[in-house]
Amino acid sequence: MWARYDPRQDNRDRGSASDRSLGGRGCTRDRDRNEAWDQSDVFTRALDLPRGPNREQVRDRDRVYELDGAESRMLATVGTFRVVAERDLYDLRDDPDGGRRSARHLEREGLIRTSPVSSGDRAVVLTDRGRDLLEANRYERHDRPHEPRQTFYAGLRKPRELTHDTKVYPAYRRTEERLRGQGGRVRRVVLDYELKRDYQRFLQERNRGKKDCDGRPDRDPAEIARWAREHELPYDDGHVRFPDARIEYEDRDGRSRHEDLEVVTAHYRGAHAGAAAKSGFTCYLSIGGSVGGRGGGGRRTAHPRIAEELLR
User: Fold this and answer.
1) Of 179, 169, 181, 5, which is closest to residue 91 (Cα–Cα)?
2) Is residue 197 located within the same domain as residue 74?
3) Same domain, yes or no, for 284 and 231?
4) What pLDDT is stored for residue 303 in this prediction?
5) Quick one: pLDDT band at residue 217, thresholds 50, 70, 90?
6) SS (HEC) of the chain
7) Closest C-alpha among 47, 56, 52, 54 to residue 76
8) Does 41 share its domain with 98?
9) How many CB atoms are located within 10 Å of the residue 79 CB?
10) Would you say 259 and 175 are in contact if contact means Cβ atoms under 8 Å apart?
11) In sequence order, which residues have a C-beta less than 8 Å from that of residue 14 and are 6 or more positions away?
């Protein structure tokens, strides 16, 4: 059985983030660390936020908020995926009505904001204050000092792709459920923004500090192909292809692995559809308000999806 991470091991000699932020009054939150690892805590396990059913005070500098465990998970989930459909957050509570009340509470607290989407649902993103609250309540990971941290995002970046982007979280949930059934454990999620940022840094690395730089990357195709191989991304005809999200996880034997996800729609045609099929990503077909999954062809990944599933 997986041992659940206990942040108290990191803070035994220095006090927890909540102890310090609430004036050192010893306000240690009750988290049942003997229960089995819960997939809903993936994005909060390195955060010193409430996890129980009752609301508790959480501070970020001069602001104080009240959150319960489900609301902590909502904030961390939205921050991880940048944008999530509001109805998908309700599953983080035992009842939909409670989920709606939690969403309204977080909105009143100024931690999230919503935008309408074509399906009649609302898309949820963090405000800057919401992201700042998550960042202010991170634990320092002394047991894994070199492990990359989960990135949290705030605000909308691609409003025209809002409907597509809200499908990434349901695709993750389907994949996480399968990986967990195989004994896997998700460590973090990397969105395409982060992968593309690293790629742009690589392309522009030689241009930094040059006053006469014209902004064009100084990398030849062989170098780009090598970068793509090192990052286990498909490279074809001079282009690196990026998934919507990469799930980094440990398999049942404790080995580090990843699986790449892409959400496609029924409108994919021609070269775009062919590239998706060859990418090797686990492709999820969005049909109306639902998502089904199918593995891409081409190069093999650690866990290719072969059979197609359609959700109605």
Assistant:
1) 169
2) no
3) yes
4) 32
5) confident
6) CCCCCCCHHHHCCCCCHHHHHCCCCCCCCCCCCCCCCCHHHCCCCCECCCCCCCCEEEEECCEEEEECHHHHHHHHHHHHHCCEEHHHHHHHCCCHHHHHHHHHHHHHCCCEEEEECCCCCEEEEECHHHHHHHHHCECCCCCCCCCCCCCCCCCCCCHHHHHHHCCHHHHHHHHHHHHHHCCCEEEEEEEHHHHHHHHHHHHHHHHCCCCCCCCCCCCCHHHHHHHHHHCCCCEECCEECCCCEEEEEECCCCCEEEEEEEEEECCCCHHHHHHHHHCCCEEEEEECCEEEEEECCCCCCCCCCCCCCCCC
7) 47
8) yes
9) 25
10) yes
11) none
Q: How far apart are CA 216 and CA 204, in angstroms?
A: 8
Phi, psi of 64 (to 5 degrees): -125, 130
Residue 272 confidence (pLDDT): 57
Identity of residue 249: Y
Q: Domain check: are 190 and 125 in the same one?
A: no
Residues 176 and 145 grouped into a single domain: no
| 56-60 vs 185-191, strand pairing mode | unpaired
User: Based on the domain organization, do 194 and 284 belong to the same domain?
Assistant: yes
Q: Say whether both 205 and 271 belong to one domain.
A: yes
Beta-sheet pairing, 239-240 with 245-250: unpaired
Output the CA angle 190-192-194, nearest 5 degrees: 65
User: Is-contact 77 41, C-beta < 8 A?
Assistant: no
What pLDDT shows up at residue 277? Answer: 59
Co-location of 240 and 204 in the same domain:
yes
For the residues 171-178, what does the mean pLDDT come to? 95
Domain that holds residue 187: 169-295
As a whole number, mean pLDDT of residues 209-218 equals: 68
> What is the phi/psi pair of residue 57, to 5°?
-80, 140
Q: Residues 6 or more apart from 97 whose CB is under 8 A from it?
A: none
Higher-pLDDT residue of 39 and 14 is 39
CA distance 249 to 256: 6
